[in-house]
Amino acid sequence: MIHDQPIVRSKPKCPPLRATVCRTATVLALTVAICGHAQSAEQNPVGTASEWSRLQSAIDGLQPTLGPTLPSPEQRMLHEYVDVMTESVSFLSAFWKRVGSPRREYLASVNGDQRLVTLSTHAKDYKKAILTLRTVADDLIRKEDHCKKSQTVPGPTASPDQVAVTVHTVKQSSEESGYTVFCIPSGWVGWPNPPIQRFNHLSSPTETKGLSPGEYTWWLKGPAGAIGVGDAPVGGDGQGEQKLFLTIPKKT
User: For the chain: N or C, fewer Cβ within 10 A?
Assistant: First the structure.
């Protein structure tokens, strides 16, 4: 479903965990990748701070390339998303220039957003393209908010480029163990070769894993196979640690 409500910069979307019935095809595709030891996110090529200029260049190409192919309502949405992404990229580029280069994994996440913008620019399905761009905009807003709030969080746990995430799996209000946990940046849902993050220790809880602030979609692998459990963001509050509780669907 296309999001047609305006983006609120100070409050990026924080969707509740929900069943992902509409993403069954993606779960099935990911099952093959999961079982086949797919390329992990850390293995993707990463550049330097020039990632920001490449991302902005991709954003600048949206309206002249994708814009003319869209119906009028989607053209207005595209215009808004371009403005939001441009503002976030401007802030993030200046922020990291001031405080120093972020971790390699963070730049990989930025590189992923740039690839998604490029894919959307040339997508044949304009609804898929608009939804992807909405998610990229949300991802950049969350990164921006996390950087801003990390400067005001007291103590050593604040981190602008990484959140130490520990995942708990819950079924019918009780913690249930024995699941392998996977996630991808939410913008990659429906696109080939997503950068998959895997928690190596079974839940629950998993080990603590460093993730870049952003929007994520989550899957579990248990006795019944791969299970889509929904979207849950990481970071946005400036904190360096986060406990994430994923609800297992009842019919598993």
Answer: N
Residues of the chain by 3-state class (helix, strand, coil), percent to 5: 45, 20, 40
What does the pLDDT look like over 180-238, one tens digit per residue?
999 999 999 999 999 999 999 999 999 999 999 999 999 999 887 888 888 999 999 99
Helix, strand counts (H, E) of the chain: 6, 8
Domain ranges for the chain: 42-150
Q: Treating both helix axes as pointing N-terminal to C-terminal, what angle do 72-99 and 51-60 enclose, rounded to 10 degrees?
A: 160
Q: What is the pTM of this model?
A: 0.83
Asked if 206 contacts 181 with a C-beta cutoff of 8 angstroms, the reply is: yes
DSSP string, 202-222: PSSS---EEE-SB-EEEEEEE
Contact 78, 37 (CB under 8 A): no
Instruction: Give the integer Cα–Cα distance in Å for 250 and 172.
Output: 7
User: Is domain 42-150 given the CATH code 1.20.5 in the classification?
Assistant: yes
